[in-house]
Design goal:
Layout: H1 3-28, H2 34-43, H3 61-73, H4 80-92, E1 102-105, E2 111-113, E3 120-123, E4 130-133, E5 137-139, E6 149-152, E7 158-159, H5 167-196, E8 198-199, E9 202-203, H6 208-237, H7 241-267, H8 278-288, H9 295-320
Parallel strand pairs: 1-3
Antiparallel strand pairs: 2-6, 3-4, 4-7, 5-6, 8-9
Helix pairs in contact: 1-2, 1-3, 3-5, 3-6, 4-5, 5-6, 5-7, 5-8, 6-7, 7-8, 7-9
Length: about 325
């Protein structure tokens, strides 16, 4: 990790650790965390994925994506990942970078994460990326985590060239990275809980049945981490991102379903309470799992790729991934 990457990572960790819980409270109340966002913008994090020639920091793509993973580790309730993705897509399409938080829309009718607070709306299309200013909210709603997901009446804006980077795939990649980070925290929180919670005179972690469930949880998290790493490396090296994202989202989505079930089972009822951190991560995982392509969408995409490879190409497709 170079000096700039290390500085951004240290800054991000400090900012997220300081502000995450307050940001979450603001999001659930339907308000905007002005001070936290101002600190994030001042740090330069929204430009971390943008190449240096377009006004970014020029850090390696894999290290910029690691920052998005860190967003997931803190379940940060702000559209920082969306803003990072929006800026790199705008740069790719030859459009001006965003001012303020970005809302991403796969198409003009999509629900936009954090739409009511977005100063710039980036819409993907077949002909070219569209950049819009803040747009009226047609209908406010929230996802299962209680975070804004709004229907926007998109105002006329600028249309750039067809971007080299797909908004859908980059959004899906961002969600994969966030989910991998959140799953790591689910594992850590669960280990902490069963190690400190005492039943029948000994910690829960000493019981064989608990150890078996922890091993399953750790296995799912490790698989999700490997899938996210592969997708990030593919993006960084210019490989087949469509396939890598389909693999990552399929495997990480499966891991999220299994890991959240185990995490809540081992925590018991306390994991669902507002006082405990676990629900922040599990509800975020359930929400992210079906954004920028649902779990079904990416599983079908992976299945179609396998069928296209045919009998002779299937094994080569598996080992090449």
């Amino acid at each position: 990790m170079n000096d700039v990457s290390a500085m951004l990572a240290d800054t991000a960790e400090r900012l997220f650790a300081t502000h995450a819980e307050g940001i979450e409270s603001a999001a659930r109340a339907g308000t905007w965390a002005d001070a936290a966002w101002a600190a994030i913008e001042e740090s330069g994090l929204p430009l971390a994925l943008v190449p240096e020639e377009h006004g970014g920091f020029g850090i390696p793509a894999s290290e910029a994506l690691a920052l998005i993973r860190l967003i997931g580790r803190h379940a940060l309730a702000l559209p920082l990942a969306e803003t990072m993705i929006g800026n790199v897509v705008l740069a790719s399409a030859g459009l001006p970078l965003a001012e303020g938080p970005v809302g991403l829309a796969e198409h003009a009718e999509a629900r936009v994460p954090w739409g009511r607070f977005a100063k710039t709306i980036v819409v993907g299309s077949e002909t070219g990326v569209q950049r819009h200013g803040a747009s009226p909210v047609a209908a406010e709603s929230t996802n299962v985590a209680g975070h804004p997901r709004d229907q926007i009446s998109v105002l006329p804006g600028q249309t750039g060239s067809r971007a080299e980077l797909s908004l859908l795939e980059l959004g899906a990649l961002a969600r994969a990275m966030q989910m991998a980070g959140a799953l790591e925290r689910v594992l850590e929180l669960t280990i902490e809980h069963v190690s400190s919670r005492v039943q029948f005179g000994r910690p829960l972690a000493k019981f064989q049945a608990i150890q078996q469930e922890l091993a399953k949880l750790a296995g799912e998290v490790a698989a999700a981490s490997a899938a996210a790493d592969h997708a990030a490396d593919t993006y960084a090296t210019g490989g087949d991102l469509t396939f890598a994202v389909a693999v990552a989202r399929t495997r990480i989505g499966e891991a999220a379903s299994k890991a959240t079930a185990i995490g809540h089972q081992l925590h018991g009822a306390i994991g669902f309470t507002r006082e405990h951190a676990l629900h922040r991560f599990t509800t975020a995982l359930w929400a992210w799992r079906d954004e920028f392509g649902t779990q079904r969408y990416w599983t079908l995409a992976l299945g179609k790729r396998a069928l296209t490879a045919g009998r002779d190409g299937y094994w080569l497709m598996v080992v090449a991934a």
